[in-house]
Specification:
The protein is 29% helix and 21% strand. The protein is α/β, with parallel strands linked by helices. It has one domain: P-loop containing nucleotide triphosphate hydrolases (Rossmann fold). The strands form two sheets. It has a five-stranded parallel beta sheet with strand order 5-6-7-3-8, with helices on both faces. The protein is globular.
């Protein structure tokens, strides 16, 4: 479970198995809230707890798909995705998540050698291969066509169905409609 209490005007609890959408136009604080939920920023007020603790959990427990493209460009696609396992274990290019996101054929290419959409799907794969208990995805389909967006959203739903607490920030009401609950900012 992910809980934010009194973080600005926000009280939010996301249970295991639930998808919550943060919906709002640009500049409403979605990314700021996501950064606080990820433990990357400290809230000006209030508290955040992850699975009952105030200590930010490791990547194997909490995975983030940031809005900004955040690949390590010096690493290959395969190496970037393997970071989702803490970098200790190589993820094979035929991993089911990798295959569904259609990035396996890019395995040996550098992060700087692929399109923005491919980079975004690589970040989604990196977040999902570790099967995190908490998944935060900030505009995870902003650079995807409709078909690939469907795949990304289905994978996020499947992660929740497997027991993860999932938060998706979006400005698109159609994407928010796929969530179990929506918090409008």
């Amino acid at each position: 479970m992910l809980v934010a209490r009194g973080v600005g005007p926000v009280d939010l609890a996301v249970a295991a198995g639930e998808v919550v959408a943060l919906l709002g136009p640009s500049l409403t604080g979605k990314t700021t809230l996501m950064n606080v939920l990820a433990g990357w920023s400290r809230p000006a007020s209030g508290t955040v707890t992850w699975l009952g603790s105030d200590v930010v959990p490791p990547w194997s427990t909490l995975a983030v798909v940031p809005q900004d493209i955040a690949l390590i460009e010096e690493l290959t696609v395969g190496e970037n995705i393997s970071l989702g396992h803490g970098g200790r274990t190589s993820v094979p290019p035929d991993h089911p998540v990798v295959a569904r996101l259609d990035v396996g054929h890019l395995w040996t290419r550098g992060g700087y050698e692929i399109s923005v959409g491919e980079r975004q799907r690589t970040m989604v794969a990196r977040a999902l291969v570790g099967e995190p208990a908490i998944l935060l995805a900030d505009e995870p389909v902003a650079h995807q066509d409709a078909l690939r967006a469907e795949v990304v959203l289905a994978l996020l739903r499947e992660r929740a169905d497997a027991g993860a607490a999932v938060v998706v920030a979006t400005r698109e009401p159609e994407i928010a409609a796929l969530a179990d609950r929506t918090l409008e900012l």
